[in-house]
Design a protein that fits this description.
The protein is an alpha/beta fold. The protein has 10 helices and 10 strands. The protein has a single domain (about 5-235), classed as 3-Layer(aba) Sandwich (Rossmann fold). Helices cover about 35% and strands about 25% of the residues.
């Protein structure tokens, strides 16, 4: 099994402030990683560093065999990174369909046989198909999150980065998004790193788990092993299978 992502000795932060201090992470092609930790431990900073919006202080980021830590954000996207930030960053003055077509990019990286197109996004998220002519401002929070995921997919990424995709959503929408993410990763073979405050929900659809504390990796294991060890979950995250506050 080929390795898609390798992070070695990564040090990064904001300006002179170092948040990540020697982070090592590896992810095989076609696998999903749950990135966990208490609030303020560096999870979002790691995602931001992968996409190139923090200050790089040291270490390597290797994507598909290519070092990308010195590349600008747009070049990392072209290399295969798709990003769904916490803020979603949809174009609220454009329709759903315009949001998707504005950023769509032809498939590369061996995915030309079944590329992600707006129509495939509509198949994944029927709610968006029903609202394809609605403006971003006319969507619910859950629909905006679906659109944010769809916008990342039409870039045809090798690696999808999801930063707290379930935050603030109603339980029924959470279940719908979890089913979609499972299909995207397990059925469609898109690799993913998912930051979440719902550890059990994300561990259930992930292959690997990494826990950060104070900008360092303090635990790495198979996701199912960590999910079954509620005592360790409580010790690492302050939870026992519930939400990480």
């Amino acid at each position: 099994m080929s390795e898609l992502l390798r992070v070695e000795g990564l040090r990064a932060g904001y300006g002179e402030a170092v948040v990540l201090d020697g982070v090592d992470v590896a992810l095989p092609e076609g696998h999903t990683l749950a990135l966990l930790g208490r609030n303020g431990t560096g999870k979002t900073t790691l995602i931001n560093t992968l996409v190139g919006v923090t200050t790089h202080h040291g270490g390597r980021i290797v994507l598909g065999g290519r070092e990308v830590q010195r590349l600008p954000s747009h070049a990392r996207a072209a290399a295969g990174l798709g990003w769904v930030p916490q803020e979603r960053n949809i174009f609220k003055s454009l329709t759903v369909h315009e949001n998707l077509t504005a950023v769509a990019r032809p498939a590369t990286h061996g995915r030309a046989a079944r590329p992600w197109t707006p129509e495939r996004v509509y198949e994944m998220f029927p709610r968006l198909a029903e609202r394809r002519s609605n403006l971003g401002t006319q969507l619910s929070g859950g629909e905006q999150q679906m659109l944010a995921v769809g916008r990342a997919l039409v870039l045809n990424p090798r690696l999808l980065l999801l930063d707290e995709p379930l935050e603030g959503l109603a339980p029924i929408i959470v279940e719908e998004l979890l089913r979609a993410i499972r299909r995207i990763t397990r059925d469609e073979g898109v690799s993913a790193i998912i930051v979440e405050q719902h550890p059990q929900a994300i561990l259930a659809i992930s292959d690997h788990a990494v826990v950060l504390d104070q900008g360092r990796v303090v635990h790495a294991d198979r996701a199912d092993v960590l999910a079954a060890d509620t005592e360790r979950l409580h010790r690492l995250l302050g939870v026992a299978g519930a939400k990480d506050h």
